Amino acid sequence: MLTEYEALLRRVSVRSFEKRVLEPHIVEELRSLTDEINSQSGLDFRLIHTGDASKAAVKLSGAMFSGSVSTCALLIGGADEISAEMVGYFGQKLVLRAVALGLGTCWVAGTFDRKSVDVELTEDRRLWSVIPLGYATAKVPLKQRTIRAAIRGKDRKLEQFIEFDHPLSTLPRWIASGVEAVKMGPSAVNQQPVNIVYKDGLVTARIWRENANILKYNDLGIAKYQFQVAAEAAGVRGFWNFGDGGEFIVDG
After folding, report:
1. pLDDT in tens, 24-58
2. Regarding beta strands 71-78 and 125-132, do their DSSP bridges make them parallel or antiparallel, or are they unpaired?
3. In terms of pTM, does the model score above 0.85?
4. Among 33, 55, 106, 170, which has the highest number of CB atoms less than 10 A from its own CB?
5. Per-residue model confidence (pLDDT) at position 153
6. Is the CB of residue 99 less than 8 Å from the CB of residue 178?
7. Residue-range domains of the chain with CATH
8. Are 221 and 82 spatial neighbours (Cβ–Cβ below 8 Å)?
9. Alpha-carbon torsion (31, 22, 97, 186), positive or negative
């Protein structure tokens, strides 16, 4: 199985899936991780597994996806900003584990049929996104290549992800690696609205693109997890304080 950092480097958003059921041991590992996340975070992630290749776990938009998946993660959490960020952070942890296991995934916040998801929510809980978990087709259809190119073509340049008052060449290697990982990460709103700030010896993450879409807090959590994984691979372990402007705390 790939390491978490290797999975980060390999991950792409998959929108074309084989009609194939996941092996039982993979389902069990994903279910175990989902339970672990819920216990640690207070979120309510759920793994839907139909066990039937002809029965989709969630109905995805035919305009954006091809094929179907019989396994899907429902990312459920509170309706507030911190919960939204935690959904992004822990959701990306689940995504990278899936990729490490050889699966294809994609963050899907809006292009799925919510009526196809059998879930009851209270007023203070929200289904933020779904993560289809399946096997990518060997050949990516032209439509999917076009969608991917259109989305990634809007990506910002690497230097736009870091706020630093000195030449980028002087960044500590672990921070530079973390920033590269943020750039490589998915974006729930396809706008990559998060910057890493390195000032006065502190590393923080902030939302630079202000808009009314609360999904930007999902992106904040995704970016923080990407950074953390890459920093650790570069030799620096740490953890994030949640919140816009939250600090990365280096262990030790």
Report:
1. 999 999 999 999 999 999 999 999 999 999 999 99
2. antiparallel
3. yes
4. 106
5. 46
6. no
7. 4-143 (3.40.109.10), 154-250 (3.40.109.30)
8. no
9. negative
